[in-house]
Design a protein that fits this description.
The structure is a single chain. By secondary structure, the chain is mostly helical. It folds into two domains: 63 residues, 434 Repressor (Amino-terminal Domain) (Orthogonal Bundle); 56 residues, no CATH class. 58% of the residues lie in helices and 8% in strands. It has eight helices and two strands; from the N terminus they run H-H-H-H-H-H-E-E-H-H. Strands 1-2 form a two-stranded antiparallel ribbon. Helix 1 packs across helix 3, helix 2 packs across helix 3 and helix 7 runs antiparallel to helix 8. The longest helix is centred in the C-terminal third of the chain and has 19 residues. It starts with a helix and ends in a 7-residue tail after the last helix.
Length: 149
């Protein structure tokens, strides 16, 4: 998703209008809806300070908004290639299923292991009914600042 699509996703998730968000961001009542609409359709790209303000309004990490653009399968695969290059994630087969694993020889192994272990722990709690979808999403959208363990 592009930045604008993430903003629209978060806005809709919170049941907010473009005008409401624009006013919260400090735009005049007259221009609020238009400015947010421009962000959402990609005519304008918010600067980092604006992204931080949007994230604060919705109670999420700015990283949630700044995700890479993975709107199609080719872009997604190239993102995975970059993760392989940078962080040592590799593709393998396990019981005739594809799986992604960490390369122990990569310097990023231990930080990646810790992050994936934390994600797996919270995901299992969600799948086992120990936490709600809202709690799971709150953890994901606020990682690493989330205090929910």
């Amino acid at each position: 998703m592009a930045i604008g699509e993430r903003i629209r996703f978060l806005r809709n998730l919170h049941g907010a209008t473009q005008k409401w968000l624009g006013i919260k961001l400090g735009f005049s009542e007259k221009t609020a809806e238009t400015r947010v609409g421009q962000y959402e359709i990609g005519v304008r790209t918010p600067k980092d300070d604006m992204i931080k303000d949007i994230a604060k309004i919705f109670g999420v990490s700015p990283q949630v908004i700044k995700l890479p653009d993975i709107d199609n399968y080719d872009a997604l695969l190239h993102t995975l290639f970059a993760i392989e290059d940078i962080y040592g994630l590799t593709i393998n087969m396990l019981d005739d299923e594809f799986c992604l694993t960490l390369n122990r020889d990569n310097p990023s192994y231990f930080p990646m292991y810790d992050m994936l272990r934390a994600w797996n722990k919270i995901a299992r709690k969600y799948r086992n009914g120990e936490i709600t979808k809202k709690e799971y999403d709150n953890w994901r959208y606020n990682y690493p600042e989330s205090n929910f363990k």
